[in-house]
Amino acid sequence: MRQEEHPLIGRSLDMPHAPATIRPVEDAARFNLRISPDNLAEASAAWGAILPARIGELASSPGRLAACIGPDEWFLIAPLEEQGAIEAAFSALYAKTIHSLVDVGHREVGIAIEGPAAADVLQSCIAFEVGAMAMNEARRTIIDRVPIILFREAQERFRIEVWHSFSDHVWHLLAGICREYELGV
Amino acid sequence: MLLIHCPYCDATRPEVEFAYGGQAHIARPLDPSSTTDEQWRDHLYIRVNPRGIHAERWRHIHGCGRFFNAIRDTVSDKFVTTYKAGEPRPELTEKEGAR
Ligand SMILES: [Zn+2]
User: Fold this and answer.
1) Do B14 and A127 touch (CB under 8 A)?
2) Ligand 1 (ion): which residues have CB within 5 A?
3) Which domain holds residue B75?
4) Which tens digit of pLDDT belongs to each residue from A24-65?
């Protein structure tokens, strides 16, 4: 499925009084990077910014997110217009440092969850303690049996990265919860 | 809800993020072609089934993705400790191992 046709295109919530709302995030380049932690400095040089070393850490710069989600695994998000340059930089790195950089841009969509009740809305269907996440923390986890990556970008702003085929389910799930919060039930 | 500590994430997470991987510390014979049928059968299929302390593999499949090992009490379902793959099975003090 192409990114221009994913299930959440054009969706929005009309809930002006809800203490948390959701919206689809504008399209971006996404990569899954596997590389030995010993070579993290070289990978950071190719990426153009420091890649976090500890699982759960999220490094953000304008338009970019880089999260360490496994012992040798990073999830990278960048503006679409930077995709070619990033691929070229890692391609050059491949000659001396073995790694895998996979374009997963068309696999996922992003959903932003914003507002004072954002953590509570997510907690309704995530088993681990969402409120205990630090700012700039990212974790792979499960939301209502759907695998996602959850980013906490600010106190009241989260981002979910979810596969296309699950995104409709996650959207309606969260929309229903936002509506319950709006109504105070 | 059962909480499990992942030694790679250094975080305690709900059981739904994990998958069970069977008994831990089973070394593959270095020279399989020299084992008897009975030895190979035992390697592949014969497992301990203790009532109490059990060393077992778990995978943080919906988290960091890594396999690690755990000591769990099969009676109480309590996780005594977890440790990284490749590390030796920890010596438990009497108190830790007690049911
Ligand atoms: Zn983990």
Assistant:
1) yes
2) B 6, 8-9, 60, 63-64
3) 3-84
4) 999 999 999 999 999 999 999 999 999 999 999 999 998 899
**pLDDT score recorded for residue B97:** 54
What is the total count of domains within chain B?
1
* Confidence (pTM): 0.92
pLDDT tens digits, one per residue of B55-75 = 999 999 999 999 999 999 999
Q: Is the pLDDT of residue A84 over 90?
A: yes
> Looking at residue B50, what DSSP letter applies?
-
Domains of chain A: 1-27+107-185 (3.30.1360.120), 28-104 (3.30.70.1520)
Q: How far is the CA of A117 from the centre of ligand 1 (A)?
A: 27
Query: What is the four-CA torsion angle of A17, A21, A23, A29, rounded to 10 degrees?
Result: 150
- Nearest CB to B65; choose among A56, A70, A128: A70
- Asked whether the ipTM of the predicted complex exceeds the cut of 0.85, the reply is yes
Query: Which residues 31-50 on chain A approach chain B with CB closer than 8 angstroms?
Result: none
Give the CATH number, domain containing residue B48: 3.30.2270.10
Question: Using CA atoms, how far apart are residues A44 and A52, in angstroms rounded to an integer?
Answer: 9
How remote is the CA of residue B65 from the centroid of ligand 1, in Å?
6
Question: What is the H or E stretch that residue A86 is in?
Answer: helix A83-94
